[in-house]
Amino acid sequence: MKNLTKKISLLLLVVLVLTISFGCTPNEDSQKKLYTNLGFLESKSTEDNKNYIEIAANGENIKLEVRDKSVFNGLIENEYYMVAYNEDNTLESIEINEFIKDLVVDSMKEGQDTEEGDSFTISSSKPADFTDMTLLDSSKVDYDNDGTEETISLYTIAGRGPDGEMAWDDGQNWSLVLHDGDKEYVLFDDYIQLGGLHFYSYFQDEDFVITTVQSGTANLILKEYRFDKENDNFICTVKFLTKGNVNMLHQAPLKY
Fold it and tell me: What start and end residues bound the annotated signal peptide (predicted)?
């Protein structure tokens, strides 16, 4: 609950700062709507003599045209930006805000305020669109014994290159989702810095369980997601996490 409260407070603060920062941004064409967002600059590209950037925001990438060549040249990949753009997805303004960046990066350190033994409940939600993410792994299972197999899917925002190999960055968003027809359970949806996520699914007696292993350069976290059929939700429990000053010497390779 403390983690949830902290994240909600952080989001409210970010929205407030974003509104203050861009609320008075001039819009040359008053007939066009102005949209604002913030996120990491995933990539820069040039297509048909037009310059584009992709901003990773809220689990999806926003592709924007940058018409000012000097602005485009000065942008830095993997930097955290606040952006304003019009309904044609043309960049109107962009700036770095170190204050918000520090808050977001701190919030991305999964497990920093988590204690071993902590637990929380994950309820179902309406299906979301994961087509912009890369499917890394999946498994079929009839987790609720209703006679129909459902799908567990592991996604990341990182893409694959022309050779099919993953284009890993220093960090990216990961999502672990159990898809069940007109509902789904988002078991994990967070940023992992210099690491990755693996999952294992199995029945333990009559209970369906998913266990995840999350690794990074300074942490190792083991979580158990146990399905509560009576209440139609998953109970997530932190089974293990490293503590203190951890210097990870070896991680299992991300062979996806």
Answer: 1-23
Distance, in Å, from the CA atom of 221 to the CA atom of 101, rounded to the nearest integer, reads 24
Residue 249 lies in a domain: no
- Structural domain of 23: 2-107
For 40-60, what is each residue's pLDDT tens digit? 888 999 999 999 999 987 667
User: 3-class DSSP state for residue 99?
Assistant: helix
With contact defined as beta carbons under 8 Å apart, do 233 and 218 qualify? no
User: How would residue 88 be classed by pLDDT, with cut points 50, 70 and 90?
Assistant: very high
Task: Tell me the chain's radius of gyration from C-alpha atoms.
Answer: 20
**Same domain membership, residue 129 and residue 74:** no
Considering the domain boundaries, does residue 250 fall inside one? Answer: no
Beta strands across the sheet bearing 91-96: 60-65, 50-57, 34-47, 80-86, 91-96
Do 219 and 103 share a structural domain? no
Is residue 255 included in any domain, yes or no? no
Cα separation, 135 vs 256, whole angstroms:
9
- The set of residues, in sequence order, having a beta carbon less than 8 Å from that of 232 and lying 6+ positions away, is 123, 124
Count of the separate structural domains present in the chain: 2
Phi first, then psi, for residue 103 (nearest 5°) are -65, -45
Closest Cα partner for 138 from 123, 161, 155?
155
How many helices (H) does the chain have, and how many strands (E)?
A: 3, 14
> Could you give the C-alpha distances from 175 to 67, 89, 127, 134, 189, in angstroms and in order?
33, 26, 13, 10, 4
Confidence (pTM): 0.59
